[in-house]
Amino acid sequence: MSQPSPRPHLTPQFCFNQTALRDFLRTSRSTIDDSITQNLNALLTPSAKPFDPASTAVRRLDAPDRSIPRAACDEFRERVLFPSWKVRSDVLDYCAGVATSPDPDDPDSVLRQVEDDRARERVVDERLDPYSGRYFPQEARTESLAMLMRNERAVEKIIRSRTWGLIGERCGLKSDSAEDAFMKWRKTQRDSS
């Protein structure tokens, strides 16, 4: 059985290092969610029924039963899937908090202030050069991080929905949405601690 994603050390530097942040999310998603079919197939007990030579005498057109025992599904969800989702949710929540907090350590803040002051002082005659009035201020790293968090949350929602659909199909679940089931699990984890 796969292992849940390990939790990274959460610091503002981790969040502002968008390469490290994306790599963590990508790796976590690839080991659990992107390979959900393989993870679910690993839950099946091979050769649970002994081979019957008479089975080759008749051609079967229906698909073999690929449903997974409920206990194996529950254990996978409780021990691997939901803990991985929790780690990713914690990282996304933490980094979203960093993105909405003031950033006194922004190395480019002085440079941006100088560029903004220069742009305000510039005299522009758009009749001579219609493009001279253009000014594209450099965005703060918190703004860039906030945009990345919005995108990653959207990706996470899509991935969880797809994963939950496959689990529902293979494990016979017909109830909650992915987010509802995850929130129930989180609540039981908080209540048991």
Explain this structure to me?
With 193 residues, this protein is an all-alpha fold. The relative contact order is 0.15. The longest helix is centred in the middle third of the chain and has 31 residues, at 70-100. The two termini are 25 Å apart. Helices cover 60% and strands 0% of the residues. The protein is elongated. It has helices spanning 12-16, 18-31, 36-41, 70-100, 109-121, 141-171, 178-192. α4 runs antiparallel to α6 (141-171). It has 2 domains: 9-41 and 66-103 and 142-193, no CATH class; 104-139. It comes from Lophiostoma macrostomum CBS 122681.
Helix and strand layout, with pairings?
Layout: H1 12-16, H2 18-31, H3 36-41, H4 70-100, H5 109-121, H6 141-171, H7 178-192
Helix pairs in contact: 4-6
